[in-house]
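Hey, resending since the last one bounced:
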Amino acid sequence: QERLVESGGGLAQPGGSLRLSCRLSRFTLNYPLIGWFRQAPGKEREEVSCINSRDGSTYYADSVKGRFTISRDNAKSTVNLQMNSLKPEDTAVYYCVPACFESDYGGPWGQGTQVTVSS
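The structure tokens again:
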């Protein structure tokens, strides 16, 4: 299975915004579930958000609910994560995979994209 490619990370100030993009592979173009995960230094990887293209439903971790928005652009073969009102605790490497829960995914992880929120 091919790794998905994450991009869009960078440095943002608290309260700022970033937009992450997950480029789908040819094998995942039709996968209905795409999830974003993150791993902060010294912490375990955690689920952030997920989208189900079958019915358009979305999932958000409580820590990002109301601030992050996940969307899918089939024309561009991407799943995006709009992150607003960023907090220092959002600092992490962000990954996307074709699953909503880590326990459901046994494939390879990409390199991720680094998000740093700091003044």
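The mean pLDDT is 95.

Sorry for the duplicate.
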